[in-house]
Design goal:
The complex is a heterodimer of chains A (499) and B (156). Chain A has four domains: 4-103, Rossmann fold; 132-200, ATP-grasp fold, A domain (Dna Ligase, domain 1, 2-Layer Sandwich), CATH 3.30.1490.20; 206-447, ATP-grasp fold, B domain (D-amino Acid Aminotransferase, Chain A, domain 1); 461-496, no CATH class. With 499 residues, chain A is of the alpha+beta class. Chain A is globular and about 70 Å long. Chain A contains 16 helices and 23 strands. Chain B is mostly beta strands and 156 residues long. Chain B folds into two domains: 2-74, 2-Layer Sandwich (Glycoprotein, Type 4 Pilin), CATH 3.30.700; 88-155, OB fold (Dihydrolipoamide Acetyltransferase, E2P) (Beta Barrel), CATH 2.40.50. In chain B, the strands form three sheets. In chain B, strands 1-2-3-4-5-6-7-8 form an eight-stranded antiparallel barrel. Residues 77-85 of chain B have low confidence and may be disordered. The chains are: A alpha+beta (499), B mainly beta (156). Chains A and B meet through strand 17, strand 18, helix 12, strand 23 and helix 13 of A and strand 2, strand 3, strand 4, strand 5 and strand 6 of B.
Chain lengths: 499, 156
C-alpha cells in the first residue's frame, strides 16, 4: 500500500480523496494555486505545495509542476480526481515515467477512449450498440450520402471532441455543408484535429451511465446505472440511481454492454460508460467512456454499498478486487443535486463573491461533499460547483422528499445559487414521472415555470433585511450591553426572548 | 425610519419592546424572539418567521422557508433604477478579460466580437450591439471585472 498520495486537484473532490486516504492510513499532499491559499483542501491535507498562479495552466494543469511536487514530497502515487488532468493520457504516462503510480486506468485505456471515432469503431467490433452513423468521412458528398442513409436530424461531432465543442445538430441537407465547415473549424481550434463523425440525432433521449470497476488482475464488474438527464449546456445538475426508466432486463443488458465496453480497452480502476437511452424504443447506445472517477460517484456509493475512492487506491496499489458481479445489489434510491454558484435568471452565468453564510443541511440519509465554508471566497478561475448534496432513502418518492427538505435547509449567502431552480425541477410533474430527457431543461426554460417570473421580495423579506442592520451590524460594532441608547437594539430585550 | 430596498420602501420603527413595520399601507407588529449568528426568529403579527440574514455593504441576503433573495439597499432617490448603459457594453458576469480585439477609434460592425471574457471555465463573447465606433475601452487583457462593469463604449 502507498505511504503518501499527492492529490492533483482542488475543492470537494480533493477533500473526498483526503478522507479516503486518512481512513486507509495514507498521508496526503495537497497542491494549490495562489487563489486557493486558504482553501479547505489545503488545510485538511498533511502537507501542501503551492503550484503557482491561479490560471489552471500555471497550477492544476501543469504536468511538470505536479510531478515535481510529487517527487519533492516523496509521494508514491497521484490521484487526479475528476476534470483537470484526470483524462489526459500524457499525464498518466508522465506519472508512470516518474516511477509514480497513477490512480486510474492505464494511459493506453485513456487514449483508446479519448477519440470519439476510434472508440466508436472499437465498440462496434466488441458488440456494444452504438448510435447509427459513420466515421472517417471527409468530403461533403460522403457526409450527404451518409446523412441521407441515417435520416435527418443528424449530429456532426468532432472525433477528438468533448464538452459540446465541434458539435452541430443538422435538420436538413441544406444546412449540412455549413455545419460541417463550422464544426471543423471549431474542432481544429479546440482540439487541433478537424476529423468529424456523423450519427443519428436522438432528440428526446435520456443520459444513462453505468459505473464500472476493475482491478489489474482482470476482474471487472459494473455497479449499476446513474440517470443523469437533468442537464443544462451539457452539464449535469441532478443525478439519481436507480433510473426510473430501467427494467431489470434492460439493466442487465446495459450492464453487460458496459462491462464489454470496458474490457475492450483492458480497463482497470473506476470508469463510467455513458449511454444514450431512447425511451420510446427502449434502446440504448454507447456514447462515450469517462476514464476517471465521476462527479456523481456518491449516489453509486450509497446504493451499491462501496467506497469507490478507497477501492480506487487499493486497486492502484495492486490489490485484487474481492467481489464478483453477484455480490452487488442496489439498495434504496439516491439523488445528487449539484449546488452551483450561478444565476439561473441570468442565463446560468457564474456568480462570485465571499460566502457570508454557508450552512449545509444535516440529517439521516444526507451527505454533503463540499469544499467551502462561511467566509470562503468563490473565485472565477474554477468550476462553479459549491457542493454536492446527496440523499439516500428507501425509495424514489422518499428520496425526492428528503432532497427537497435538505435543499430548503441549505443556506448560501454571498453568491447566487441554483438551489431554487433545482427545487422547481424536483417538484415538476415530469420529474416525478421520470420523464426528464436531456433537452428538457432548455425546453422548459423557454416555456417558463422553472424560474420565478419576478422575484419581488415579500414584506417578511424586507422586514428581516431591515432588522439585520440593527441586529447584526450593531451587535458586531459594540457589545450588547453598552448600546442602551439605540432604540433598535434588540439585545436589551433579552427578557422577552422565547425559547 | 424609512429604508429603501431596490424599488420598495419600508417604514420600520420601535414601539415599546417591539417594532412596527409598514409598507404599501399595510402595518404589522414585529417582535424579535432571537437573533444570533445571522439567524433571526421573528413574530410578525403573531406569525413565527425564521430568517437567515447576511449583509455585505449595500446588499442583504435573506432566506425564509428555504427561498433566498438578494436585496440592495438604496438611498431613496435612486429607487434602485438600473443605469441605462447607452452605448456601453457591460460584463454579464464577474470574470477575467481573456482578449480585447479592438482599439479606441476602431469602426465596428453589429455582432462583431469586441472582447472575450472567461469565468469558471465558461467563455463569453462581448459583441457590438450596433454598427459604430469604439470611443472608450475600460478593460484590458487579464483584467478582473465585476458583473455589470462597463467594458467598452461604442457610439454610432
Amino acid at each position: 500500500m502507498f505511504n503518501k498520495i499527492l492529490i492533483a486537484n482542488r475543492g470537494e473532490i480533493a477533500i473526498r480523496i483526503i478522507r479516503a486516504c486518512r481512513e486507509l492510513g495514507i498521508k496526503t499532499v495537497a497542491v494549490y494555486s495562489e487563489a486557493d491559499k486558504n482553501a479547505q483542501h489545503v488545510q485538511l491535507a498533511d502537507e501542501s505545495i503551492l503550484l503557482g498562479d491561479a490560471a489552471p495552466k500555471e497550477s492544476y494543469l501543469n504536468v511538470d509542476k505536479l510531478i515535481r511536487a510529487a517527487l519533492d514530497s516523496k509521494a508514491d502515487a497521484i490521484h487526479p480526481g475528476y476534470g483537470f488532468l484526470s483524462e489526459n493520457a500524457s499525464f498518466a504516462a508522465a506519472v508512470d515515467s516518474a516511477h509514480l503510480t497513477f490512480i486510474g486506468p492505464s494511459a493506453d485505456s485513456i487514449r483508446a477512449m479519448g477519440d470519439k471515432a476510434e472508440s466508436k469503431i472499437l465498440m462496434k467490433q466488441s458488440g456494444v450498440p452504438t448510435v447509427p452513423g459513420f466515421e472517417g468521412l471527409t468530403s461533403d458528398d460522403e457526409f450527404k450520402k451518409a446523412a441521407k442513409e441515417i435520416g435527418y436530424p443528424v449530429l456532426i461531432k468532432a472525433s477528438a471532441g468533448g464538452g459540446g465543442k465541434g458539435m452541430r445538430v443538422v435538420n436538413a441537407e441544406s444546412e449540412l455543408s455549413e455545419a460541417i465547415e463550422s464544426a471543423r473549424r471549431e474542432a481544429l481550434n479546440s482540439f487541433g484535429d478537424e476529423n468529424l463523425l456523423i450519427e443519428k440525432y436522438l432528440a428526446d433521449a435520456h443520459h444513462i451511465e453505468f459505473q464500472v470497476f476493475g482491478d489489474k488482475h482482470g476482474n471487472l464488474v459494473h455497479l449499476f446505472e446513474r440517470e443523469c438527464s437533468v442537464q443544462r449546456r451539457h452539464q449535469k445538475i441532478i443525478e439519481e440511481t436507480p433510473s426510473p426508466l430501467l427494467t431489470p432486463e434492460l439493466r442487465e443488458q446495459m450492464g453487460l454492454a458496459a462491462v464489454a465496453a470496458a474490457k475492450a480497452v483492458n480497463y482497470y480502476n473506476a470508469g463510467t460508460i455513458e449511454f444514450i437511452f431512447d425511451p420510446l424504443l427502449s434502446t440504448f447506445y454507447f456514447l462515450e467512456m469517462n476514464t476517471r472517477l465521476q462527479v456523481e460517484h456518491p449516489i453509486t456509493e450509497l446504493t451499491a454499498g462501496i467506497d469507490l475512492v478507497q477501492w480506487q487506491i487499493r486497486i492502484a496499489a495492486g490489490e485484487k478486487f474481492p467481489f464478483t458481479q453477484n455480490d452487488f445489489h442496489q439498495h434504496g434510491h439516491a439523488i445528487e443535486c449539484r449546488v452551483y454558484a450561478e444565476d439561473p435568471s441570468n442565463g446560468f452565468l457564474p456568480s462570485t463573491g465571499k460566502l457570508l453564510q454557508f450552512l449545509e443541511p444535516r440529517g439521516p440519509g444526507i451527505r454533503v461533499d463540499s469544499g467551502f465554508k462561511t467566509g470562503s471566497d468563490v473565485n472565477h478561475f474554477y468550476d462553479p460547483l459549491l457542493a454536492k448534496l446527496i440523499v439516500h432513502a428507501a425509495n424514489r418518492e422518499t428520496a425526492i422528499q428528503r432532497m427537497q427538505t435538505a435543499l430548503r435547509e441549505f443556506i448560501v449567502h454571498g453568491v447566487v445559487t441554483n438551489i431554487d431552480f433545482m427545487q422547481a425541477v424536483l417538484k415538476h410533474e415530469d420529474f416525478a414521472q421520470g420523464k426528464v430527457s436531456t433537452p428538457w431543461v432548455e425546453k422548459n426554460l423557454e416555456l417558463g415555470g422553472l424560474l420565478p417570473e419576478q422575484d419581488i421580495p415579500s414584506f417578511e423579506n424586507l422586514i428581516a433585511a431591515a432588522l439585520a442592520d440593527v441586529v447584526f451590524v450593531g451587535a458586531k460594532a459594540q457589545p450588547a450591553v453598552s448600546n442602551e441608547t439605540d432604540p433598535f437594539n434588540p439585545w436589551k430585550q433579552t427578557k422577552n426572548y422565547r425559547n | 425610519m424609512k429604508i429603501n430596498f431596490d424599488t420598495q420602501t419600508l417604514e420600520i420603527n420601535p414601539s415599546g419592546d417591539q417594532y412596527v413595520a409598514a409598507m404599501d399601507g399595510k402595518t404589522v407588529s414585529v417582535q424579535i424572539i432571537r437573533a444570533e449568528d445571522g439567524r433571526m426568529d421573528l413574530l410578525i403579527d403573531g406569525q413565527r418567521v425564521n430568517a437567515h440574514v447576511s449583509s455585505d455593504m449595500a446588499k442583504r441576503w435573506v432566506t425564509i422557508d428555504g427561498h433566498t433573495i438578494m436585496l440592495t439597499k438604496t438611498s431613496g432617490a435612486k429607487q434602485g433604477v438600473r443605469h441605462d448603459h447607452a452605448g456601453g457594453l457591460i460584463a454579464p458576469m464577474p470574470g477575467q478579460v481573456r482578449s480585447v480585439s479592438v482599439s479606441v477609434g476602431d469602426v465596428v460592425k453589429k455582432g462583431q466580437t469586441l472582447l472575450t471574457m472567461e469565468a469558471m471555465k465558461m467563455e463569453i463573447r462581448i459583441q457590438a450591439l450596433k454598427d459604430g465606433r469604439v470611443t472608450a475601452l475600460h478593460a484590458a487583457q487579464g483584467q478582473t471585472v465585476e458583473r455589470e462593469q462597463i467594458l467598452i463604449e461604442v457610439e454610432e
